[in-house]
Amino acid sequence: xxxxxxxxxxxxxxxxxxxxxxxxxxxxxxxxxxxxxxxxxxxxxxxxxxxxxxxxxxxxxxxxxxxxxxxxxxxxxxxxxxxxxxxxxxxxxxxxxxxxxxxxxxxxxxxxxxxxxxxxxxxxxxxxxxxxxxxxxxxxxxxxxxxxxxxxxxxxxxxxxxxxxxxxxxxxxx
Length: 174
Prior knowledge:
By secondary structure, this protein is mostly helical. 61% of the residues lie in helices and 4% in strands.
C-alpha cells in the first residue's frame, strides 16, 4: 500500500519540477557558503590589519597588567589587552548601571571579570585622564548630532524646493 506524501498545492511534482527545486536548494546552500566565506574573509582582513598595527605599533604596557596602549588603536586610549575595549567604555558602562559581572558577560568569552576590574582600577588610578577622554567623546558625539540635524534640515529644504512633477505628457494617467 502506497502512502500519499503531502506536497504543496496538492500536486505531485514532475521530474523537471523536482530537479528545479533540487537546483534551488543547491544554489541556496552555495549562497550560504559564499556568504559565510565572505564573512570569514572580512574577519581575516580585520585580523591582518590588527597584526600589521601591532607590528608597526607594539602595545605599550601600563602600570596595570591587563591595560595597554597601542598607537593608532582607539586613538591611543588605554584599552584592555587583546580585547580592544577602552577603559573609558567600561567606566561609562558602569555609570549606566552595569555591574562588572554584567560587563564581562556582555563581552564573553573575550573579556574576563579580572580585566574589567583592572580597567576600573586603572580609572581610579588615573581619573583625570579617563574623564578627559569621556569629555572628548561626548563632545564628538554632540558635534555629530549637530551635523546630522543640519544635514537633515538641508535635505528637507531641498525636498521642499523641488517642484512636484506634473502629469502632462502622460496618457490616461499612466
